[in-house]
Amino acid sequence: ASRLIGSGTPSEALRAYDAAAAAAVQAHQGIVHRTGESSLIAVWDAAGERASVEHALEFSLALREAAKRFNDEVETRGDCPGALSVCVHAGDCTDESFELTARIASFGPEVSADILVTGPALTKAPRWFTTEKLSPGDDGTPELHELLGRAKQAPDSAAAA
User: Does the reported pTM lie above 0.70?
Assistant: First the structure.
């Protein structure tokens, strides 16, 4: 496994992590829409097709692993680890949809979940992703689930079962 932060400063470490996250978006067939001080917004097929949601969920799991490696290395150096907060949502590519997704991602630390999936995204997700329902949703927020991982059964054998 490659080192994420090497011997650089904390700001260099964060830039390296951001670059690795952006590369992971592209590796999972997404497009980086915009980046912020501590955020990255990525887009997969705007129509929210099943394959696109699958790519977004796979990216989220890969980012979880990258964040763990990053934090392990940061802690080894005696620095404070960062927190991962991701939201996967299926909807139109509008500012309103991006704002909703960012707002939902901010709930992650409150519910001790690093990857949140909205109901609209979950309905388009392959069944081999495991989730736990956290909230039934209300007028302003869709149903929310925590992405736990993949089922132990391989996708090909799960489809045949």
Answer: yes
